[in-house]
From TrEMBL, chain A:
Record-annotated membrane-spanning stretches: 17-36, 129-147, 177-197, 209-231, 237-258, 445-463
Species classification: Bacteria, Pseudomonadati, Bacteroidota, Cytophagia, Cytophagales
Keywords annotated in UniProt: Membrane, Transmembrane, Transmembrane helix
Official protein name in the record: DUF3526 domain-containing protein
Native source species: Algoriphagus sediminis
Origin superkingdom: Bacteria
Length: 469, 235
C-alpha cells in the first residue's frame, strides 16, 4: 500500500499545476494566519490600553460616593483567545465590551460584525474558512478521478494483474489524498505555533491536538467518500458532481436549515421580551432608590432589631447601602432566573444542533472547531458568567462601603477615599479549561468517528464491488 | 501440456453471445494469433484468461489452473499488453517498470531494470525520460518489459500493433518471437492479418464469438490468409 501512496505523492510533486496550487494555497494559509494573528494582537493591544486607562481612571478617583461610583461603573473587555487566528467562532458577532454598573446587567456590545463595512457570507480570510471550506474542495478535486482514471486508462487491469488488491488501491488513494489535507492542516498549526511560541502550554497543545483530530477525521470522510464514488462509477464526472452536491448540502444548506429549525424548536425570547420579563420581575422587588417600599420596610425592621435601635437615624451604619445591596441581590436572583432559562434554551439548541451531525459531519466539525478553539457560544457564556460574578463582587464592595464605611443613613454626600477605590480588584478573566468543557464536544467527536467508520465500511464495500472492466 | 486452454467456453452479455463454444489450446513457446472483427470476442476471450470475466460455461485455464477459480495464482503467470499501455506519465520508463515490479513483489536493481528495458527494445537514452514524452511503441516496450521482469510465462496481447508505425510494429514482432523462443506462451488478438501471419505459429479466426477457422501460419501466405479472412467475414 505504501508503494501506491509513494507513487501518488510523486504525482503531486511532479505535476506543475498541482504543485502551483499547493504552494499558492500554503501561502494563502500563512497569510490568513498572519492576518488573524495581527488582528488578534491589535485587538489585545487596544483592549489592554483601554483597560489600563480605565483602571488608572478608577484608581485615580480621589474621593467619591460609592454609589455614584457604582453608577460610574467600569468596562470589561473580552480578551482575544489565542486560538482565534485558527477559528474565531462566534466572536465576531457576540461583542467584546461590557459595561458593569449597579442595578443592571448590561449586554455585551461592540461586535466586530457591527463595525464591518461590507458583509460576506463567508466572512473574512480566516484559516477556519480555508480549512473548513476550501481544503475539502481541494481534496474532492484530487480524489474524484483517482480510481475512475485508472479504470478509464486501462491501468487498473495492469495494477490488479501486478498483484495490487482493490482494497489496497482504494485505501492507498484515500490515504495519500487525506495525508495531503492533513499536511496542509499540520502546516497551518505549525505556522500558528511559530507565532505563539511563548504562549504554548498544555491547554493550548491539548486544544490544537483536538482540532487536528477533528479536522483529520472530517478530511478522511470527504476523501474516502470521494474515492468511493470514484471507484463505484466509471464516469469521473458523476463522482465529482455527486461529491460537490454533497459538499454544498453539507456546508451550505443543512447547517442553515438545521439552525433555523433548532431556533424554532427551542425558541429564545426576543431581546425586548427578555428585557421586559426581567423588568417585570425586578419591579416586584426592592427599589434601590426608594427605601419606602414594602420590602425595604421589612429590611428596615430586621436591621433595627438587629442593632437594637428604634429609628434609622440611630443606626451606626448607612441603611441606604444595605437596601441597595438587598436590591442587587434580588436583581441577581432575577438575572439568574432569566439568564439561567436563556442558557437552558441555548444548551437545548446546542444539543439539537449537535445531533445534526448524524446527517452532516460538517456540523460536527464546525462545533468541534469553534469549541476546541475556545470561541463558541459555550465559552462566550462562560465569559459572561465570570463577568457577572465579578460585577457582583464589585458592586457589593461599593454597597458595603456605602453601608459600613462610616456614613449615616441619608448621607448621599459621603465620599470614600482613594485607598478604597484602589482596593477594589480589577476583573481578571480565567480562560475556560478544556477539561471542564470537553464533555460538551464528545458528541461531535464521536459523530465524526462514526462517520469515519461508515466511510471506512463504504471503502471496503466499494473494493469488493469494484468493476475492473 | 498446453499452457493456455479453453474448453467449450461460452460467454454472453445480456443474452447476447460474445463467445460461443470456443476451444483453444496454446502450447509453451507457441504464439497464437486471434483474428476477428470488432465484437468477434477477442477481448472477451482475453478478459476471461485474465480472470476479469468468468465463462458462463466451459473451462478457461492457464497452466492447468482455472482462471476464474485461482485468479491470484494465474495472474502471477500472466503478462498483459493492451492496445494502449497507459503508464504513469510523470514517471520515467525506468520508474514505471520499477513501480510495477514492486507491486508484483519483485525488487530489482537499477542495472537489472535498465537491462529489462534494453532487452525489450527501448533505447537506453529513453529509459530516464518521462513517459509523457514516449511514443505509443515505446510505451508498449515498457509494457512488455513489465511482463518480462515479472517473469510471465504467458503473454496476452490485445491489439498490440494497432497504431504503431511499421518500424515499431516490426520491432514488436521481433521481441515477441524472441520471447516465444525463450519459452513464453503468447496469445495475441489483432486485426492486422499480415503481422499475425508473420509473428504467430498458429492463427484462429473468430466470428461472432465462434472460432470459425484454425490454421498454421506456414500453411498460407499473407495474401491467402487475407482472402480467407475476408471470405469468413463476408459470409
Amino acid at each position: 500500500m505504501w508503494k501506491i501512496i509513494k507513487n501518488e505523492w510523486k504525482y503531486y510533486g511532479r505535476t506543475p499545476w498541482l504543485l502551483g496550487i499547493s504552494v499558492g494555497f500554503v501561502l494563502v494559509l500563512f497569510l490568513s494566519i498572519w492576518l488573524g494573528n495581527f488582528q488578534t494582537q491589535k485587538q489585545t493591544e487596544r483592549y489592554n490600553t483601554a483597560s489600563n486607562e480605565l483602571r488608572a481612571q478608577w484608581e485615580s478617583i480621589d474621593a467619591m460616593n460609592p454609589h455614584n461610583a457604582a453608577h460610574y461603573g467600569t468596562y470589561v473587555f473580552k480578551p482575544a483567545n489565542m486560538l482565534s487566528s485558527l477559528d474565531e467562532g462566534v466572536n465576531s458577532i457576540t461583542g467584546n465590551v461590557l459595561r458593569l454598573e449597579g442595578h443592571v446587567q448590561n449586554e455585551i456590545v461592540h461586535s466586530e460584525a457591527s463595525q464591518m463595512q461590507t458583509i460576506s457570507k463567508f466572512g473574512k480570510l480566516k484559516s477556519s474558512l480555508l480549512l473548513q471550506y476550501i481544503v475539502p474542495i481541494l481534496l474532492i478535486f484530487l480524489a474524484f478521478s483517482s480510481i475512475s482514471n485508472e479504470k478509464r486508462s486501462g491501468r487498473l487491469k495492469l495494477l490488479i494483474l501486478q498483484g495490487a488488491k482493490p482494497i489496497s488501491l482504494i485505501f492507498a488513494k484515500t490515504l495519500s489524498i487525506w495525508l495531503y489535507g492533513v499536511g496542509l492542516l499540520v502546516l497551518t498549526i505549525m505556522a500558528y505555533s511559530l507565532f505563539h511560541l511563548n504562549d504554548l502550554n498544555v491547554e493550548v497543545l491539548g486544544r490544537t491536538t483536538l482540532l487536528l483530530v477533528s479536522y483529520s477525521l472530517y478530511y478522511f470522510i470527504i476523501t474516502g467518500l470521494t474515492v468511493f464514488f470514484s471507484a463505484r462509477w466509471e464516469n469521473s464526472t458523476i463522482a465529482l458532481t455527486s461529491m460537490l452536491g454533497i459538499w454544498i448540502i453539507w456546508t451550505i444548506f443543512l447547517p442553515n436549515i438545521l439552525m433555523s429549525s433548532v431556533e424554532k424548536w427551542h425558541d429564545l425570547p426576543s431581546r425586548n421580551e427578555f428585557k421586559a420579563a426581567m423588568q417585570e420581575d425586578r419591579s416586584k422587588g426592592l427599589d434601590g432608590h426608594n427605601p419606602s417600599d414594602e420590602r425595604a420596610k421589612e429590611l428596615e425592621e430586621k436591621v433595627l432589631v438587629e442593632y437594637g435601635v428604634d429609628s434609622l437615624s440611630q443606626l451606626p451604619i448607612n441603611f441606604d447601602g444595605l437596601v441597595m445591596q438587598e436590591d442587587e441581590e434580588y436583581g441577581n436572583k432575577v438575572w439568574d432566573k432569566h439568564f439561567g432559562e436563556l442558557r437552558k434554551v441555548l444548551a437545548s439548541q446546542k444539543k439539537s444542533y449537535q445531533m445534526g451531525g448524524l446527517f452532516d459531519p460538517f456540523i460536527s466539525l464546525q462545533n468541534a472547531s469553534m469549541g476546541f478553539a475556545g470561541n463558541d457560544n459555550l465559552h462566550h457564556q462562560e465569559f459572561l458568567v465570570q463577568v457577572e460574578n465579578y460585577r457582583r463582587v464589585f458592586i457589593k464592595m461599593l454597597n458595603d462601603k456605602h453601608a459600613y464605611g462610616g456614613s449615616e443613613t441619608g448621607d448621599w454626600g459621603w465620599e470614600a477615599d482613594n485607598e478604597f477605590f484602589k482596593s477594589v480588584p480589577d476583573f481578571e478573566y480565567k480562560p475556560t479549561a478544556l477539561a471542564s468543557v470537553f464533555p460538551h464536544y464528545i458528541t461531535d467527536v464521536l459523530l465524526l468517528v462514526g462517520w469515519s467508520i461508515l466511510v471506512l465500511s463504504l471503502i471496503v464495500f466499494g473494493a469488493k464491488k469494484m468493476q475492473v472492466l | 501440456m498446453s499452457m493456455i486452454q479453453l474448453k467449450n467456453v461460452n460467454k454472453s452479455f445480456k443474452g447476447q453471445p460474445a463467445v460461443q463454444n470456443l476451444n483453444l489450446q496454446v502450447k509453451e513457446g507457441e504464439i497464437l494469433g486471434l483474428l476477428g472483427a470488432n465484437g468477434a470476442g477477442k477481448s472477451t476471450t482475453i478478459n476471461m484468461l485474465l480472470g476479469f470475466l468468468s465463462p458462463d460455461s466451459g473451462i478457461v485455464s492457464i497452466e492447468g489452473m482455472e482462471t476464474s477459480k485461482e485468479e491470484k495464482k494465474v495472474r502471477k503467470l500472466i503478462g498483459y499488453i493492451p492496445e494502449n499501455v497507459n503508464l504513469y506519465p510523470y514517471l520515467s520508463g525506468l520508474e514505471n517498470l520499477d513501480y510495477f515490479c514492486k507491486l508484483a513483489g519483485m525488487k530489482y536493481s537499477k542495472t537489472e531494470l535498465h537491462e529489462f528495458l534494453t532487452r525489450c527494445g527501448l533505447q537506453s537514452d529513453a529509459h530516464d525520460k518521462k513517459v509523457s514524452e514516449y511514443s505509443k511503441g515505446m510505451r508498449q516496450k515498457v509494457g512488455i518489459a513489465i511482463a518480462y521482469a515479472k517473469k510471465a510465462k504467458v503473454y496476452l496481447l490485445d491489439e498490440p500493433a494497432s497504431g504503431l508505425d511499421p518500424l515499431a510494429s516490426n520491432e514488436l514482432s521481433e521481441i515477441l518471437k524472441k520471447l516465444a523462443a525463450d519459452g513464453a506462451t503468447i496469445l495475441m488478438a489483432s486485426h492486422d492479418i499480415f503481422r499475425v501471419r508473420e509473428v504467430c505459429h498458429r492463427i484462429g479466426i473468430l466470428k461472432q464469438g465462434e472460432l470459425v477457422k484454425e490454421l498454421r501460419s506456414e500453411e498460407v501466405s499473407a495474401n491467402e490468409l487475407e482472402k480467407l479472412y475476408l471470405e469468413y467475414m463476408t459470409n
